[in-house]
Structure formats: C-alpha cells, structure tokens
Amino acid sequence: MKHLDPKAVWFFFVGFVLRWSIVMFFLSIWGSAFLGGINGSFDRSGEFSFGFLNWLWMIIPAFLVLCFVWAKLTYHFYRYELTDAGFRKELGVIYKKYVTIPYDRIQNVDIYRGILARILGLSDLNLQTAGASATVSRFGAAGMRAEGRLPALSRETAEQLRDELVQRARHSKNQGL
Fold it and tell me: pTM score, two decimals?
C-alpha cells in the first residue's frame, strides 16, 4: 500500500492546530475565569500575579508537540492502493477505517487544491460515487462529500491517480454488457 506525500504531515499538523486552537482558546478563557483572570489577579498579599498566563508557557508547546505527533501518526496510518477489485484505502490512528470502492461505482474523480495545499504543493483527490456521497441526517441531505477522499497527495501523483482511476472506471463499465 502507498502512503500520502511526506509533506502531508505538515498539512495535517496545521489543520489540527487550527481546529484545536479554537478549543484551546475557549478552555483558556474558562480556565482563567477560575484561576484569576486572563491578565492576572491580586493575591492575598496584594501583589499582582499572572496565574494562568504562567501555565500557557507550558501548555502551548505541549499542545504543538501533541498536534505534531498526532499528524505523524495520521500520516503513517493513512494508506491507499488500486487493486483488481477497486480503490482501497485505510486510515485511523485509534479507530481504523477500511474503504473499498469498486471501479464501476466511481462517477467522478476531482482534484481539489486549497490554499494550504497549494502552499505545500499538494492536492486532494476526491472520488464521487453513485448515491453514497450525500451525507444524510434527520434534517435531510446535509451536504455532499467525497466517499473516497485522499488528502495531501503530490500534484503529479494526484493527476496520475486521477487518470488511472478514470481509465479503470471506464474499462469496468464497458465490461458488463
């Protein structure tokens, strides 16, 4: 099985930091309310102490190290391959997910390049399948997402993989009748 581009570690790292920094911000506000305010407080002797801000100097580096380790693990356990049966990927650090998409179910193969991916020279490959790409909730269709998403591939690999998948999907649909 193949891995994503090695720069995917940085792609995952920045994504984790951005997502979890919002949570950390609200936790720091909540924690500072109990530990003496964001800017500090006066202790019993009347001296000003910085309370929670002193802890931030330890929390932020630990948070960044944890995000980087999680990004490395995510990269290590994210694999894909093209088999005779179809496109196959596996991912997950704690909970593993195994996905196999038969070639005859592939409807569309898209390449997406967001701002961070372009900065790193990466691309996302999205495989749209017949009927399984809509996320349905009790409120109806919540949105479209690719069932076979491969994030953080190199630009060349994404284009080669797209061409190969389109060719195999076309070939498998012509085999039936």
Answer: 0.78
